[in-house]
Amino acid sequence: MAKFLLFVAVLAVVFWLVRASNRRSKPPPAARGPEAMAQCAHCGVHFPGAESVTENGRDYCCDEHRRLGVRS
Ligand SMILES: [Zn+2]
Fold first, then answer.
1. Does residue 33 come out as left (phi exceeding 0), alpha (psi in the -120 to 50 range) or beta?
2. What pLDDT is stored for residue 31 in this prediction?
3. How far is the CA of 7 from the centre of ligand 1 (A)?
4. Which of 12, 41, 55, 57 is buried most deeply by CB count within 10 Å?
5. Distance 63 CA to ligand 1 centre (A)
6. Ligand 1: distance of its center to the CA of 29 in Å?
7. Three-class SS state of 15
8. Residues 6-23: pLDDT tens digits?
């Protein structure tokens, strides 16, 4: 009976190690994934939406272009 318990314990450790190494090889979900892109209404450059400066529903790449406004 003691041998059986030892066998189960070794299996459990191996299973845990395999799971841990699989988890480590995958990139964390927060690091990748689709990122919302925005387009500057002044210069037209595309950039991550999280960095956008928004005014009157338009996105700008920086505060200077927000002040300059939409390029005609
Ligand atoms: Zn811009």
1. left
2. 53
3. 64
4. 41
5. 9
6. 30
7. helix
8. 988 889 988 898 898 887
- 29 residue type, one letter: P
Could you tell me the CA-to-CA distances from 45 to 3, 8, 30, 52, 72 in Å, in that order?
A: 67, 59, 25, 11, 15
pLDDT value of position 29: 55
Instruction: Tell me which residue has tokens 């991550």.
Output: 48
Nearest to 58 by CA among 72, 32, 38: 38
Amino acid identity of residue 41, one-letter, is A
Ligand 1 centroid to 56 CA: how many Å?
15
Structure confidence by residue, pLDDT tens digits, 29-65 = 555 556 789 999 999 999 999 889 999 999 999 999 9
Distance 22 CA to ligand 1 centre (A): 42
